[in-house]
Structure formats: structure tokens, C-alpha cells
Amino acid sequence: MQILEDSLTTMSADGIPYGIAVGNRDNMGASGQTVLYNQYFGENRFLDRLYYGGHYGTKNDQHYVLFNASGYDFIAIFLEYNEYPEDSVLVWADSLLTVHSTRRAIIISHYIINDGNPGSWSTQGQATYDALKSNPNLFLMICGHEDVEGIRQDTFNGNTVYTLLSNYQSYPN
């Protein structure tokens, strides 16, 4: 990740804006702790980067970044893998989409949909979509987890949200 962060190779003071969605294998131990994740990708790694918006709670498991590309302003919210997401986390994400209503919004989480066209929702994916779909700036949700591809599009109040699953880790090369 240091390559993305290098201001010389990226020709950008903060490097290339990025975040990381905590996955099921990042939740180490019986209590689902993310100690190693936060050791290497905690708040301290991002705090001095202008694109880093902050996090929910005491850890960086849920965080967001603000960036622009091709004349558009974006907010990307990274949600920790949690089959049954906490209502308070979804309220936090909803408030960010409201505060940053002029930014195109992307939700990134480890497991949102299954394979297929349309891919069926995971429990977390359905809860996340239901909690955030009323925000007209939400247009994209991205995930991995399953070693396949999937896509779906859902429209609420005239706003279409595209959800994409891509995970190529089991493919050769």
C-alpha cells in the first residue's frame, strides 16, 4: 500500500486516495477483534491524509474517504464485514450521505451480494441497501467475498443503485 501512498510516484501530495473494507478473515479470534487490521491500517495510517474523513467508533473498522475524479466529488464509505450490521453503524453511514449529499456516494463492504445477474443480497447487503437507499447520491455498492462475479441494480424513488461483486483470487494468474 506504500506505493499508493507515495507522493513521488503518484505525483499527488497524499498519494492515491484509498480505504480498506474489513473482511471476515480480518476479524481474528473468537471475539472478532480486528487488532492486526488496526495495527497496520488504523486511524494513524490515514490521519494526516487530506482525503481521510474519519471513522465510526474507536477503531478504523468503519471509515470514509472524500476524493474527486474527472470533475466529480465522491464519498466512499467502508463498512466492516458483519452479517448483522449494527443499526448505529448504518445511521452513521446514512448521516454521512446526508451531510455529503452533493458527493456521489459509494459503499464498499466485504460481502453485499452473491453471484449472478441479479446477485441475491447477503443479509448485510440487504440491511445496508434498505438503510441507505433513500439517499439520491448513492449510486454504487462494491464487494468481494465470493470467488465469483455478480451484479444487480435496484431503483428506489427513481434513483438506481448498482451493486457489483468481483473476486478473482481463485482464478489462475
- What is the count of β-strands? 9
Query: How large a portion of the residues is in β-strands, by DSSP E?
Result: 25-35%
Mean pLDDT: 94
In sequence order, what are the helices and strands, one letter per element? HHHHEEEHEEEHEEE
Q: What is the molecular shape? A: globular
Question: Biggest sheet, open or closed, and with what strands and sense?
Answer: 7 strands, mixed
Could you give the distance between the termini?
21 Å
Rg, Cα atoms, Å: 16 Å
Instruction: Give the strand order of the largest sheet, numbering strands 1, 2, ... along the chain.
Output: 1-2-3-4-7-9-8
The oligomeric state of the chains shown is single chain
How many helical stretches?
A: 6
Low-confidence stretches: none
Summarize the structure.
The chain has 173 residues and is of the alpha/beta class. The protein has helices at 2-5, 7-10, 35-41, 43-46, 87-99, 123-132, and strands spanning 52-55, 63-69, 72-79, 104-109, 113-116, 119-121, 138-143, 149-156, 159-166.
Kindly describe this structure.
This protein is an alpha/beta fold. Helices cover 24% and strands 31% of the residues. The protein has 6 helices and 9 strands. It has helices spanning 2-5, 7-10, 35-41, 43-46, 87-99, 123-132, and strands spanning 52-55, 63-69, 72-79, 104-109, 113-116, 119-121, 138-143, 149-156, 159-166. It has a 7-stranded mixed sheet, covered by helices on one side. A two-stranded antiparallel ribbon has the order 5-6. Helix 5 crosses helix 6. It starts with a helix and ends in a 7-residue tail after the last strand. The relative contact order is 0.13. The mean pLDDT is 94.
